[in-house]
What we know:
The protein has helices spanning 7-15, 27-33, 68-81, 137-145, 162-167, 220-225, 257-260, 271-278, 317-320, 324-336, 342-359, 370-373, 397-417, 479-493, 520-531, 533-546, 555-561, and strands at 22-24, 43-49, 56-63, 84-88, 109-113, 121-125, 128-132, 149-150, 195-204, 209-216, 234-240, 242-243, 246-252, 280-286, 293-299, 308-309, 364-368, 384-392, 426-433, 464-472, 499-503. The protein is an alpha+beta fold.
Amino acid sequence: xxxxxxxxxxxxxxxxxxxxxxxxxxxxxxxxxxxxxxxxxxxxxxxxxxxxxxxxxxxxxxxxxxxxxxxxxxxxxxxxxxxxxxxxxxxxxxxxxxxxxxxxxxxxxxxxxxxxxxxxxxxxxxxxxxxxxxxxxxxxxxxxxxxxxxxxxxxxxxxxxxxxxxxxxxxxxxxxxxxxxxxxxxxxxxxxxxxxxxxxxxxxxxxxxxxxxxxxxxxxxxxxxxxxxxxxxxxxxxxxxxxxxxxxxxxxxxxxxxxxxxxxxxxxxxxxxxxxxxxxxxxxxxxxxxxxxxxxxxxxxxxxxxxxxxxxxxxxxxxxxxxxxxxxxxxxxxxxxxxxxxxxxxxxxxxxxxxxxxxxxxxxxxxxxxxxxxxxxxxxxxxxxxxxxxxxxxxxxxxxxxxxxxxxxxxxxxxxxxxxxxxxxxxxxxxxxxxxxxxxxxxxxxxxxxxxxxxxxxxxxxxxxxxxxxxxxxxxxxxxxxxxxxxxxxxxxxxxxxxxxxxxxxxxxxxxxxxxxxxxxxxxxxxxxxxxxxxxxxxxxxxxxxxxxxxxxxxxxxxxxx
Length: 562
């Protein structure tokens, strides 16, 4: 009935997007194509696939160093032979920060896989953990939980490597609830804001080679490395952490979008009202539906009577494993071009969530923070996503959400009236604090220069960030044109008056009508300007000085940094 995109076939195809295919290297070929490569570092051929398989490359040379010193050896080999180096974790990303689309197999680029061996974990002190950058967030949070430690918020997928997460200022969703005080060792900002020190591979002018160097958080160069976008290679970090907390996560699917995303000042069950009471909120609004899936986390030292105690993460099996009706609809849309089924798919996804929450007793969960913060497995539906963040003050969050969702609904309705269905996934809305360096508890700590959560010095009242994502299947017709309109709306509406827009590094942005990461004005002016000319210039100059030979980069990063 459905060939390649049957439920099983679709999941199998999607899984290939993030599982690298490794082929042992022929020693003779390796010696010819990579002469004098360090003998202690094992080489192999590998395919590269990003999260949704939109960016792919086959037959690239790759290696998995056992130690940071082996990383240095590989980097110095690359510099001598004119190659470039790209660190790879689990490839759970969308943007071309690692590999650009169309990279041929004979390109002189070496993938350095961090996940196999750079995974060490140890307590540096009672409130600090030393971690290799290849460790996954799930492994890190499990290690911390076993020692009574944790973080305030984290991304939903547990398979992200720590190095990848830090490179793009990964985040969760959390601001202080009414009356809540930040716990020592915690932050409401990005994971990058927890770094106490990091060790990176940098150029040593005196020695004429790349070396390992450790930077403390109070050093100026560290500010550029905290969120480096792949323009460096960090092998190890020390993170500040704090006491773990137990969280309750309550899911609801009964509040209309018109009420949840109402104009500011409206009475009722608004997004802002849940944020005020709990501080940790996420809304997932499936396309062409009226009732979002709302998740609300709250700090709860003891288990509420109605909550199910969860001892492991990933407690939404209906989300982690694509339900048959959803998979079959996706199959028809992708293989038969039946994109007009987007409203049916949206409602099928809503039904799967609403019914699944009841069937799996997942609507009210309680347990150690990791077990409700991590909820997406690699088996979930692989879908493309755009991303931006709006910086504003806490009192303006409902206004930002209302204006965005109103424009989104109007444009989606207008497109549908013309027989165009550019969105078949969901809108996702999260809220975090900004990267306050004081949270790390180190004198003189620097703010990450390129974190989207970097505060604006001229707008001290801006203390909150609203993350906005629109998800749709890869290859959906008119998606890029639609997302370009959304992006221009956000940039024009939240233009520095009461709020300001920045891009979310790992997602889709800089849209033209044909493609993401392609708009010259957004790439060349808007993105640097959103951080301020001085901060952008400082970050660029530091990254260039630490890597003057451009070993850590690709064509897209070359263009972005100009």
